[in-house]
Structures are given as C-alpha cells and as structure tokens.
Amino acid sequence: MFTSPSPNDPENGTTLSDHNATEFALEQLFGPTDPNPAAPIVADPETFHDTIQELIPELPIPPIPLVKNRVSGSYRSAASSGYELELRVDVDGVGPTQRVSGDYYSVSGATKTYFGSFIVNVVSVTFTTTQATLTGTAECTWTTDFRRLQITIQRTTIFQSPAPAQLRWFSVTNNAPGAAYQCNYVSRYFRTVVLEQDSLVGVTPFNSYNTGGLPSGGAARTLGVIPSYREAGIDIQIGGTTNVIANSGAGANGTWSDAELHNAMQANFALWQNIPQWKVWLFHSYQHDLGPGLYGIMFDQQGRQRQGCATFYRGIGGTTNDQLRLQLYTNVHELGHCFNLMHSWQKSYAQPALPNRPSALSWMNYPWNFPGGPAAFWNSFDFRFDSQELIHLRHAFRDKVIMGGNPFTEGAALDSGDLFADTIENNTGLQIELEAKPSFALGEPVVVEIRLRTTSTLGKSANTCIHPKFGYVHIGIVKPGGKVVTYEPLAEYLMEPDIKLLTEESPSAYDSAYIGYGKDGFYFDQPGTYQIRASYFHLDGSRIVSDIIKIRVKSPLSADDDSVADLLLGDDQGQLFYLLGSDSPYLKAGNEAFDQIIDQFPTHPLTMYAKLAKGVNDQRSFKSITDDKELTVRSAKPTESAALLTDVVDQSKAGVGSKASIGLDNISLNMAMRKLAKAQSMEGNDEAAKETLTDMVNFLGKQTSRPHVRKLIREQAKNALKEP
After folding, report:
1. What InterPro entries has UniProt attached to this entry (predicted)?
2. What is the DSSP letter of 63?
3. Taking CA 695 as the corner, what is the angle to CA 694 and CA 701, rounded to the nearest 5 degrees?
4. CB of 78 closer than 8 Å to CB of 195
5. Rounded to the nearest 5°, which phi and psi values hold at 517?
6. How crowded is residue 506: how many other Cβ atoms within 10 Å of its Cβ?
7. What pLDDT band is residue 139 in, cutting at 50, 70 and 90?
8. Are 195 and 238 in contact (CB under 8 A)?
9. pLDDT tier at 29 (50, 70, 90 boundaries)?
C-alpha cells in the first residue's frame, strides 16, 4: 500500500477542488491519465482495495432518532388527600401559549365539587433528551403561600404511552415543599365539551368548508365546527340526541322570537342541567323575527348562562363557497360566545378589561368591522382564534369559561377613563344621543330613546343597527352609590350591519331600548339618581359617546305602589319585559305576577306595563317543541291582545305632556299602536285597524317637528299590517 499527501494538506501549498481531488486520487491509483488510451487500464486488485479504503474511510452509522411524544395536553390525578387535579400543560403542542393551568375538585365519598383554579402565565421550560421540567408561580382563585410549582414529565417515544406529570407545590416564602400529585395523561386537548344539536326540518345543518375555496390568510384545509375548535385545543364531542324538529304546525309565521328560542332550549336541550357543565346546545333554525340579516344569536344569558345558541339559515344557508364560509364562521362565532368570548372590538367590557382588538383576525371579530372591510378580513383570515382567545379557551379559570358558569362578560369593567370619559375630538361627522323621561317609578320599565345623526352637510354612511342587542351601541349606567355597570342584553346577536346614508333630508336613525333588565338582573332596582351614557362603534373603528343624561327612580308613595313594585321586580317579570311576553312554562311565575297586577290593581299607573307585555305576546302566535320533537303553534289571540293594548295606548296618549305621566315613550307607543292595529285586523275589524294607524300618524306626527321622522311614521303605518 502506498501513501500520499492529502489533496487538502496545507503542506502542498495549494488546495484542490473536489473534481481535481478525484483526478489526483485516480492518478495515484492508475498513473497519469492518457487522453487517448489505446487499451483499457486494469488496476491491481489489492492496490485498488487499499487505496479505496484510504480514500473513503469507514463512517459510523448514526442511530435513527425516535420521535418523542409532546408533553402538552390535559392530565388528571387520582383523588389525593381529598382533592383531584385536572392539569393542563401547554408548552410544545400546536400553537403553544406557554402556560400551565389546572382545576381542583374536592372529593368526599361519592361526591365531587369544584374547589378552585390556577394559572401560570410565565413558565420556565427545560427539555433534556429524557425529561421536561416546568417551573413557575401560579395565580390562584384561593389564598395560599404555596404558589410556586414544579412539573416533571418523562419524555417517551411515539411508540410508548405519554408519561404522567409529576407536580409539586412549593412555598413562595421559604421554598418549603408542599403537596405533590401524579397526574396521568388524558388527552392532547385541554378541555372537552359535549355539543347537542337540533335542527328545523328543511334546514341542512352546516357540515364543512374547504378554506382553499376562496382567498384566505392560511393553509387550505377542510374545517367544520368540531375541527375548528380542536385546532384551538378544545375537543368538541357530539352528545345527546340530534333531532330534526318538524314544523307541520308552524303556520305562516315560520320565524322565531327570542322568547320562543329561550323556551325551546329549556324544553329540548336533553343534556341541560341547572349547574355549570361542559355541555352546550346549538339550534340550526331558519329565520329570526328580525329577518334574514340576523345570522346567529347566543340567547341564553339569564340564570345559568351561556348554554345555548342558534344560527339562522335564511341569511347564511346555501352551498356556494361564500355561503359555506359564512356558515362555518357563524356557527363557530356563536359557540364562542358560549365559551364567554366577547367580540374582538368589545374586550374592554370584559372583567378584567382587555384592550379592544378591532383588527383581530379572529372568529370573534365581525368581517364588516375589520379595517379595510370584509374582503380585507377574509383575504387575511386564517380561520383561528387570536392568541388571547386561545389563552381564555384553554386556561381561563373554570367558571369564567364553562357553560353555566360566570355570566357573559362577568359584568362591565368601565371606569372614568372609558365609557364615561368625554371625547376630546370627534371628526366622524356622526353623533349618538340619548333621551329618556326624567323620572320613573320604582319597578317601572326604564326605556331610552337612541338617536344616531349626522353633523355633516355632505351626508354620512353609517350602520343604523343602534339597539344595544346588536352590539354596536353600549349603554353605561352609574348607579346611585357610584357603581358603574354596562347594560348587557339577554341575547347576543350576530347581525349584518344596516348601512344607510344619513343626509340633510334624512339625518337621523332612531330606536328605543328597554334597559331595565339584562343578564345582570335589574339595573334600576333602587330609588335614587342614575347617570346613563351611550357609546357607538362606527365601522371605521371610531368610538362615539353621547352626552350623559340623568334619570331619577322615585320611592313608592303608597302601599299599592310598594306592592306593585314588588310584583314587577321579579326575574321572570324582567325577562318577560325584555322578551315582550312569552308562553314559556319556565316564566310562569312572571305571567302570574302580571295577572295579579291586572286583577288586583286595575287602575294603578304601572299596570299598563303588565298589559303591554301580555298584549304583545297575545298578538302573535307562539311556537313550542313537544317531547316528540314536533313543532306546535299556539294561535294568536287578537281579541285579548286588542283589549289589553287599547288600554296601554289610551293611557300613554293621555299622559303625554304631563310631568308626572307614566306611559310609553314615543317609539314604544309607535310599536304598541302598530301591534294593536295588527290585532284588530286579525280579528276582522279592519276599520278599527285603519283608525288606529291613522291616529298613530296624526298623534305621533304632532310630537315631532322633523319632517323625516313624520315620513318614517307614515311608512311604518303603511307597512304595519305586514309585520310579523
């Protein structure tokens, strides 16, 4: 065997390219290359073998690395010292939030109750080839010195089962060790929710959409409701009985009111219990009373809230890519509210408050609210929740996210720096205004008139959905003791904006809102002076606030006043005022209280409000779903409705102009007179209906000096008999 200098040896004074190095080696083996060889060159076999071994040394064969299981997911301990721990580790999975959280349950015999939750927002993570170690300091719902934790998890291969998580608590004061738990691996998902679905006959519930069907901001994939939440780390499983509700008895009015939806959920959600639980109901329906512009509603916001929602396929149904995309978005969005997620531009109203994110690319944003409009949103949207929403879904304290837990948004987080702060500069060309009676009796429904108007002589396009239930207007209330709250309607609507051009000839849009009762109960339940202010979210992201108005709730002056107030201030009665009546057996106590007021206090000024709720409800039919999943309809009762509403209208008209009057505001009176005319027409008294509508135009026309308002009143009278 011969030896030779390395071709890259520095002693050679030069280095060779890979090609030249090969030629050099061949020359060492075979001799100089003849450019025109006369015969084949044959190398000596021993020399050839030795040279090849020298030029190509033996290399060790590297071991094949085995892929490790991720340590992220959910874990659960056995009951230890009376406690069971559900642990969530989120450091190396899909879209990790770099957090650890958990829920403790107290176990006694065969019973288990929720104890509290913790979250570690800053986690130190160390990975070795065999172990993951996580440390951090927790925020807990209970008071304890043992808030520092350490979690160790052995790293197993994908051919092995995931290893348990070993958790140990330590004192933040002296580092003394505390309780230890071994939590066995449960799932790669952080929480599991059971979804029960029903649909109306003729409605095809949404199944899936290929996100590559239209331009978007992410990878193309096929998504449905369940895969969308699983991408967020939430395992949704189908449970209960999936029913198709027959509507053979629906009659001409196939639309659904809030009252009917509320009753339908309570009667047909088979998994429902009056406790917090990871179970939710979704009703695929056709159309709401508000029309095809309402896509969805989370209507369960009273009592054990956030357990049910509905989507309406009159506005979102179809098989085109646009329609399937909208169905996916609407169903995921409404279920998001059931997880206590607010709209992206309303985060400051949560508790604790978070920054509003109107430019968020999230399921919880409105495409039409996004800077640049819907096209800009869809072109950039990756069909995911944003990072803060992922933290909430995966790690928020249990009662803040579980269905039936804390109320929706947990109440307001307003302060002097938010809704009640004066606007320094408003260049939008729009103003929002509030108006209300200066005083109300205790128990009297508090209603405010809302007006959106342009200040520009050139006209201004604006979204005229200004009732608080649509989410574009918020009402802040300062109570007599100084507490600041936000009025929260019982239902959360996903409503398409109603864009109109406000001009000098038609400069305003109007609505009235009953704000006396919402998801926090009664807001005006004690005598004293209240301050009220509205905030309007314009489509360009501007927040426009109204001037502050003050109202006074008066103390009862007599025993009858006190008795009637007590009968009006029940939760069932508050819901009936909000819903404008209901046949629901779950609100039976409220209807009985209204009947008692009408029977025992027929001349009391507040009796008219009980008559209003019952009269409006009698004017319409009422749908219910039987135990056999048949849709039945209670026919309208026009004669009873007309009698009740006539009293309401007469009393309200008589009180106009009187400082001490108790009666409806003009917008509510307008509604009552249209309902009265409809009832009169339904009972065959067309002449009376015509007289009522003529009276409405004349009477209400005298209450305003604005020509465009008079024109609107005439148009409403013309179309009154066509309304649901």
Report:
1. MetalloPept_cat_dom_sf
2. P
3. 95
4. no
5. -140, 135
6. 18
7. very high
8. yes
9. very low
Distance CA 414, CA 419 (A): 6
CB 11 within 8 A of CB 5: yes
Buried b (16+ CB within 10 A) or exposed e, 267-299: ebbebbeeebbbbbbbbbbbbbbbebbbbbbbb
Using an 8 Å Cβ cutoff, are 577 and 516 in contact?
A: yes
pLDDT at res. 408: 58
- How far is the CA of 708 from the CAs of 431, 491, 603, 694, 712, in angstroms? 17, 31, 37, 18, 6
- Exposed e or buried b for every residue in 76-100, given b needs 16+ CB within 10 A? bbeeeeebbbbbbbbbbbeebbbbb
Neighbour-count burial for 431-455, b at 16+ CB within 10 Å, e otherwise: bbbbebbebbbbbbbbbbbbbbbbe
Determine the average pLDDT of the residues in 662-686: 91
Residue 44: predicted pLDDT: 60
Question: Is residue 33 over pLDDT 80?
Answer: no
| Mean pLDDT computed over 510-530 | 93
At 328-348, the pLDDT tens digits run: 999 999 999 999 898 887 766
Phi and psi, residue 574, nearest 5°: -60, -40
* Rounded Cα distance, 297 and 495, in Å: 9
pLDDT of residue 414: 31
Higher pLDDT, 497 or 30: 497
User: Which residues, in sequence order, are CB contacts of 291 under 8 Å at separation 6+?
Assistant: 314
Identity of residue 12: N
Pair of tokens at residue 479: 């109570």
Whether residue 449 has pLDDT greater than 90 = yes
Strands 111-120 and 139-140: antiparallel
- Pairing type for strands 279-285 and 308-312 reads parallel
Measuring CA to CA, how many Å separate 663 from each of 230, 376, 556, 660, 666?
52, 47, 17, 10, 9
Q: How far is Cα 270 from Cα 625, in angstroms, rounded to an integer?
A: 13
Starting from the edge strand earliest in sequence, which strands make up the sheet with 430-435, in order?
A: 430-435, 447-454, 508-514
Tokens of 393: 């879904």
> Which helix (DSSP H) or strand (DSSP E) does residue 39 occupy?
none
Q: Which two tokens stand for residue 359?
A: 């430019």
The three-state DSSP-derived secondary structure of 233-293 is: CEEEEECCCCEEEECCCCCCCCCECHHHHHHHHHHHCCCCCCCCCCEEEEEEECCECCCCC
Chain position carrying tokens 């109750």:
113
Q: pLDDT band for position 304 (50/70/90)?
A: low
Rounded to whole angstroms, what are the CA distances from 467 to 66, 75, 251, 452, 491?
59, 45, 29, 11, 12
Closest CA to 238 of 193, 288, 203, 283: 193
Mean pLDDT across the stretch 565-579? 94
pLDDT digits (tens, 9 = 90+) for 486-503: 898 888 788 888 999 999
| Pick from 150, 133, 138: nearest CA to 71 | 133
| Mean predicted confidence (pLDDT) in 296-325 | 85
Strand partners, 609: none
DSSP structure string for 122-184: S-EEEE-SSEEEEEEE-EESS--S--EEEEEEE--BTTSPPPPEEEEEE-TTT--EEEEEEEE
Q: Write out 593-654 in H/E/C secondary structure.
A: HHHHHHHHCCCCCCHHHHHHHHHHHHHCCEEEECCCCEEEEECCCHHHHHHHHHHHHHHHHH
Alpha-carbon distances, residue 428 vs 418, 476, 510, 544 (angstroms): 19, 21, 18, 8
| Token output for 447 | 């209603």
SS3 category, 482: coil
CA distances from 330 to 31, 334, 340 (A): 79, 6, 16
DSSP string, 340-381: TPPPGGGGGGSSS-----TT--STTS-GGGSTT-HHHHHHH-
Structure tokens at 203: 């409605």
Compute the average pLDDT of residues 715-723: 87
Number of separate helices (H) and strands (E) present in the chain: 17, 34
> Peptide bond before 352: cis, by omega within 30 degrees of 0?
yes
In the chain, the N- to C-terminal Cα span, in Å, equals 103
